[in-house]
Amino acid sequence: MINKELLTIVETIQIAKETIKMRLQGSEKIKHAKPGQFVHIKVGNEGSHMLRRPISIADVNQDQQIVTIIFKVIGSGTDHLSKCHVGDVIDGLIPCGTSYPIEQITMDKALLIGGGIGVPPLYYLAKQIKEQGVEVTSILGFQSSEHVFYQSEFAELGKCHIVTNDGTHGFQGFVTDVIDQLDPTFDYYFSCGPTPMLKAVSSKLQDRNGYISIEQRMGCGIGACYACVVPTNDGSNGFKKICKDGPVFEANEVVL
Amino acid sequence: MINKELLTIVETIQIAKETIKMRLQGSEKIKHAKPGQFVHIKVGNEGSHMLRRPISIADVNQDQQIVTIIFKVIGSGTDHLSKCHVGDVIDGLIPCGTSYPIEQITMDKALLIGGGIGVPPLYYLAKQIKEQGVEVTSILGFQSSEHVFYQSEFAELGKCHIVTNDGTHGFQGFVTDVIDQLDPTFDYYFSCGPTPMLKAVSSKLQDRNGYISIEQRMGCGIGACYACVVPTNDGSNGFKKICKDGPVFEANEVVL
Amino acid sequence: MTLQINLPGLVLKNPIMPASGCFGFGREYSDVFDLNQLGAIIIKAATKQSRYGNQTPRVAETSSGMLNAIGLQNPGVEAIINQELPFLSDYDVPIIANVAGSSVEEYVEVTKALTRTTTVKAIELNISCPNVKQGGIQFGTDPELAAEVTSKVKAVSHVPVYVKLSPNTSNIVAMAKAVEAAGADGLSMINTLTGMQINLSSRKPILANKTGGLSGPAIKPIAIRMVYEVRQHVSIPIIGMGGIMNAEDVLEFLLAGANAVAIGTANFHNPFVCPEIIQALPGVLEQYGFRSVEDAIGKGHEHGVTNFSRA
Amino acid sequence: MTLQINLPGLVLKNPIMPASGCFGFGREYSDVFDLNQLGAIIIKAATKQSRYGNQTPRVAETSSGMLNAIGLQNPGVEAIINQELPFLSDYDVPIIANVAGSSVEEYVEVTKALTRTTTVKAIELNISCPNVKQGGIQFGTDPELAAEVTSKVKAVSHVPVYVKLSPNTSNIVAMAKAVEAAGADGLSMINTLTGMQINLSSRKPILANKTGGLSGPAIKPIAIRMVYEVRQHVSIPIIGMGGIMNAEDVLEFLLAGANAVAIGTANFHNPFVCPEIIQALPGVLEQYGFRSVEDAIGKGHEHGVTNFSRA
Ligand SMILES: Cc1cc2nc3c(=O)[nH]c(=O)nc-3n(C[C@H](O)[C@H](O)[C@H](O)COP(=O)(O)OP(=O)(O)OC[C@H]3O[C@@H](n4cnc5c(N)ncnc54)[C@H](O)[C@@H]3O)c2cc1C
Ligand SMILES: Cc1cc2nc3c(=O)[nH]c(=O)nc-3n(C[C@H](O)[C@H](O)[C@H](O)COP(=O)(O)OP(=O)(O)OC[C@H]3O[C@@H](n4cnc5c(N)ncnc54)[C@H](O)[C@@H]3O)c2cc1C
Ligand SMILES: Cc1cc2nc3c(=O)[nH]c(=O)nc-3n(C[C@H](O)[C@H](O)[C@H](O)COP(=O)(O)O)c2cc1C
Ligand SMILES: Cc1cc2nc3c(=O)[nH]c(=O)nc-3n(C[C@H](O)[C@H](O)[C@H](O)COP(=O)(O)O)c2cc1C
Ligand code: FES
Ligand code: FES
Fold first, then answer.
1. C116: burial class by Cβ within 10 Å (0-12, 13-18, 19+)?
2. Among candidates B121, B132, B195, B126, which has minimal Cα distance to B154?
3. Strand ranges (DSSP E) for B73-187?
4. For FRET with A161, which of A136, A250, D173, D289 sits at 20 to 30 Å CA-CA?
5. How many domains, in total, are found in chain C?
6. ipTM, two decimals
7. Where does the signal sequence lie (chains C, D) (predicted)?
């Protein structure tokens, strides 16, 4: 059940280059949001922004009924959102999409692999599985040092390796290079980031169990318009809707 | 010379039903605005409001570089403007159009006839001619008592008669009824208001000297697009542009 | 105040229905609000075989509008009949089925299949989809082809047929007259205008299909003009659409001559828009002096005939 | 970085020019900024006799756009030559004269008169005005008529002729090919789409002319699509327009294949928009990796031919 929630901004702060963390307070319905799900946010008005923007849920404070989102300013919608103030109310459909099926799987060790704005959903995931007693290792890739965020937050939950494309912070290269170098042990991996990264990760780890979370331009955000389809990998000519059947998929379920 | 001024709202206050008075501070260029001229105001953004809104100058404080506008909320643009706050900056082309030619005419007594949102420009006019020693009588028409504004302001400058359509304040009826009843003496009359009122006034006073100020939907506001033309009355098949040759015209110069 | 409107094959509680392709087969929105509130539902286009549609990205945002190039993705008419219609038949809402195809034969076969069912109360003949290589819009810009497909579909349909017109034409009146003469029971207008957006960084069209259909408030003035013009030249009812965001927009379409309206893009901006409009409509009608929906239809025509379309 | 572009008859300092009808004869804007900054100026349409145009209201606001129905008001070609061109000849900016008419003969005569002068460096043949009862758009939706008027005007013109196309057609490519074959030196596209807005209170169309031309960002996706499509099928240069508000929009038109651009509606929103865009353009070109305007033209075409227009 998707709700249209009026969310009050209780905090908005820049945490890295072009990267905003925002905390949004809503009704008690938002407590049920799970790691991997997203909020479909209305920005501006119909003249300026006809379509909503999907942004992952990076954390939920159940007591205070607050969800955290972290987003990068890449275009006019995120720019508009970044200029909103504490006290402003934004309209969001929440919770949208599927979550990481952490209640259905058993594991001792998990590897989290995030890239850029794919990092935020992994944080709430890390918190929840850590609470379940899972040992969490994360490898987080960014463009360069000024884009890095949430290193200490992830470090509190387990080992956290940072990699930057230009080597200005942590390892130099791509997340896959770090996987090669460290060869971490894990039962399941969870990955979110740009499609080229997901492709590289899932092909490197192709015989391992894992979940990925993918992006696509969306219309409705609730499964009705077929804007966000992705072909399935089973040769059936089938497809999944990222907004409804995803954004979380088993690693080899869909064709990237 | 028209300037694009960034005007800071220093006061915004509702002074009658759906009627807002706003004081706008700009650069010293705005000091030169004259009675009868208007500001062509950008509201919202290009998605919500492509066209600017023409609003008359109701007063100018030359020392503080403040212009006063008074407007009625009748549609989405004025609604948007009414929701702006003190400190907000609005973009206005100023000064636009012609002014009442008070420096070219000599008179002892003037009759001002205003209707609704046609009242505001008459106020700055009244102030200026009163300073020149002219005796000012005003007849101001409104829909009903809750719409009346600026009665005391006009009363400070001369005799002021209010008329409401429904008789809930002052005389009952139309401004022309009051002219009939009071038969005031004057050398020139100045009128601004809805077109039907201007028609009634100018036909009643057709052999008197007078100036009227008229409205039309505008594009550019500076004389380039020909959106706002009005035919001239001289049988020449000619026309005037209200935004540039007007909004002030000699009473029988144009066809209403 | 009554919002009820009767059209060929359709008794509508109110004149508000989601537009084809913008509401799937109703299932997803049934999680959002009670579908029984709707006047009708126009379901997503059906073709004979299942279609995957175009590559992604399939949507882009434009000023006061959007582009889409879904490409008629659907599971094929038999799967729709077996998997989607039973769900919809549980609701007390008339279902209008949008029919697409690459050939006259396909339109005919899909219509035959759909009108075997009792759930489908009317056909919306989609001769105006700009996003497929074959069929669709080519039928929608040639009056003779449009008339041919209309009469052949009419011949096999057990329910009234509304023909959905494309705005990508210099003469919408000629199209409307042609399908009326061919037996159409009603018109549905307008579909999207063909548009494109280019990404400055990638230097490529944003949509994988390059072009897409422009919808939303940006096109409302074009839709209003076309409904107004067509209203003056045909007598069959019109389902109006194109950029409706609120109850005021609905009234504008009614004044232009629409008998009912469909809401497309607005559903994405606000999934509750249909029920919200249904709730607001009586107040808006009253505010502008109307006693019913019926009362407002065509009331924008007071000064003779307008036709600016040229052949 | 050089913004210079050479087109038939025109050496442009930069590719930015105000669009016809949106800048009068330049006089009013000369009070606002120095006209010498402009790449060119396209002046308001000229007809043989003076025309009063349509009744007011002549403009309405729409979502991300506006409607206009000025109706080609102008003082007639001789008055333009005597009263307006001398003023413009003082500036170091090429003047493009927009020519309108109700008959082929009128187009020919107006062109003859204008190209007698040395101030007019090119003709923009307006076969696409939606706001007059006779002429204008009827030439713009029929390829044969368009070709006829183009070749007759070419025969008498001493300067290059750019034909201004109407988007109110199902096949813009056919129109473009027809006028290219008839000798057009360039294309100018797009003019406005016919639209309408109805006032809910008066229950009448807002414009006295009922319909008007839709312009502004609302139509930009349609303009981009048409420029892109036409670029793939004709080789003469294109002056692109339709909804440009800023330097990014200019680049989008260049990528689509325009060689220069015109700015219409945006002048009303911001009278300084042309010089502001000229100032911003080098930075935007650089940001997206281009070394000059020339360098960006047509760079949005990387994946073969697109044609979604149908006859
Ligand atoms: C399920 C999901 C979760 C996401 N979570 C996050 C997150 O937590 N943090 C974050 O910074 N970003 C996230 N994104 C990406 C985010 O949606 C885009 O960055 C954002 O929509 C860009 O909007 P814009 O107006 O700034 O850009 P513009 O380019 O101006 O947007 C134009 C249109 O394209 C769409 N669009 C552009 N880029 C993307 C993209 N990468 N993915 C989907 N739509 C796009 C926009 O939504 C809009 O409709 C997520 C995307 C998806 C699909
Ligand atoms: C020279 C001049 C001076 C004016 N001075 C004042 C004033 O001092 N106070 C005041 O309250 N109003 C004044 N008006 C009227 C004011 O411009 C309109 O009320 C206002 O534009 C309405 O905008 P809206 O968005 O609220 O209405 P909408 O109806 O939503 O506007 C839609 C479009 O129509 C135009 N429009 C609608 N009504 C009018 C109108 N009466 N005149 C011109 N354009 C209109 C708008 O500008 C806009 O382009 C003046 C008009 C003119 C021409
Ligand atoms: C994402 C999307 C998908 C659409 N799919 C269809 C379709 O399958 N069949 C059809 O006839 N129209 C389709 N349309 C067109 C709409 O039904 C409608 O005619 C058009 O969008 C104009 O209305 P609007 O401005 O309210 O969206 C689609 C529109 C959109 C935005
Ligand atoms: C008020 C107005 C008047 C116009 N007059 C003319 C004209 O006389 N001749 C012409 O060819 N185009 C005319 N146009 C069309 C513009 O030149 C331009 O093609 C169109 O508006 C699209 O560009 P835009 O979206 O930047 O405005 C006019 C447009 C407007 C808004
Ligand atoms: S965004 Fe509409 S189906 Fe996914
Ligand atoms: S508003 Fe453009 S000429 Fe007056």
1. exposed
2. B126
3. 89-96, 109-115, 135-142, 158-164, 171-172
4. A250
5. 1
6. 0.96
7. none
Please write the tens of the pLDDT for every residue from C221-241: 999 999 999 999 999 999 999
Sheet holding A59-61, edge to edge: A53-56, A38-41, A89-96, A3-16, A19-25, A66-72, A59-61
| pLDDT tens for the 256 residues of chain A, in order | 788 999 999 999 999 999 999 999 999 989 889 999 999 999 988 888 999 999 999 999 999 999 999 999 999 999 999 999 999 999 999 999 999 999 889 999 999 999 999 999 999 999 999 999 999 999 999 999 999 999 999 999 999 999 999 999 999 999 999 898 888 899 999 999 999 999 999 999 989 999 999 999 999 999 999 999 999 988 887 999 999 999 999 998 999 8
Residue D277, domain member (yes or no): yes
The residue assigned the tokens 């807005």 is: D197
D306 belongs to a structural domain: no
Q: What is the pTM of this model?
A: 0.96
CA distance D172 to D309: 7
| Cα C235 from chain centre | 18
D131 close to D70: Cβ distance less than 8 angstroms: yes
* CA distances to C227, D13, D258 from D273, in Å: 35, 17, 19
Return all residues near D59 (Cβ < 8 A) that are at least 6 apart: B51, B217, B218, B219, B225, B227, D66, D67, D68, D69, D207, D212
User: Which tokens is A162 given?
Assistant: 């940072």
Domain that holds residue C152: 5-48+72-191+213-301
- Strand ranges (E), chain C: 5-7, 10-12, 16-18, 41-46, 59-62, 65-68, 95-99, 120-126, 161-164, 186-189, 193-196, 198-199, 204-205, 211-215, 238-240, 260-263
Instruction: Give D158's Cβ-side CA count (13 Å radius).
Output: 12
Interface-testing mutation among D62, D63, D245, D269, with chain A (most A C-beta atoms within 10 A): D63
Integer CA distances (angstroms), A194 to A198, B150, C204, D43, in order:
6, 62, 19, 49
DSSP sequence for D194-256:
EEE-EETTTTEESBTTBEEEEESGGGHHHHHHHHHHHHTT--S-EEEESS--SHHHHHHHHHH
**Contact residues on chain D for C219, CB-CB shorter than 8 A:** 218
Q: Tell which residue, C198, C89, A80, C216, has the closest CA to residue D302.
A: C198
Chosen CATH of B3-96 out of 3.30.1540.10, 2.40.30.10, 3.10.129.10, 3.30.1490.20:
2.40.30.10
- Residue-range domain boundaries for chain B: 3-96, 109-215
Residue A245 Cα to ligand 5 midpoint, Å, equals 10
> D58 lies in a domain?
no
Query: Would you mind telling me the total number of residues written for chain B in this entry?
Result: 256
Distance CA A125, CA B166 (A): 68
Q: Specify if D273 maps to a domain.
A: yes
Give the Cα separation of D299 and C203 in Å (integer).
7
Q: Which residues of D are catalytic?
A: 129
- Residue A94 pairs in a beta bridge with A3
Tell me the two tokens of residue D243.
Answer: 């909804």
Instruction: Give me the residue label for tokens 């159009």.
Output: B97
Tell which of C55, C59, C61, C63 to mutate to test the D interface (max D CBs under 10 Å). C63
Report CA(A202)–ligand 5 centroid distance (Å).
24
Separation of alpha carbons D112 and D158, rounded Å: 8
Per residue in D48-73, pLDDT (tens digit) is: 999 999 999 999 999 999 999 999 99
- For residues C186 and C164, what is the distance between their CA atoms, to the nearest angstrom? 9
- H or E stretch including C254? helix C247-256
The answer to whether B172 touches B162, Cβ cutoff 8 Å, is no
Distance, in Å, from the CA atom of D168 to the CA atom of D142, rounded to the nearest integer, reads: 11
Scanning C66-95 for CB atoms below 8 A from B yields none
- Chain C positions touching D217 (Cβ under 8 A) are 62-64, 218
DSSP secondary structure string, B113-126? EEEGGGHHHHHHHH
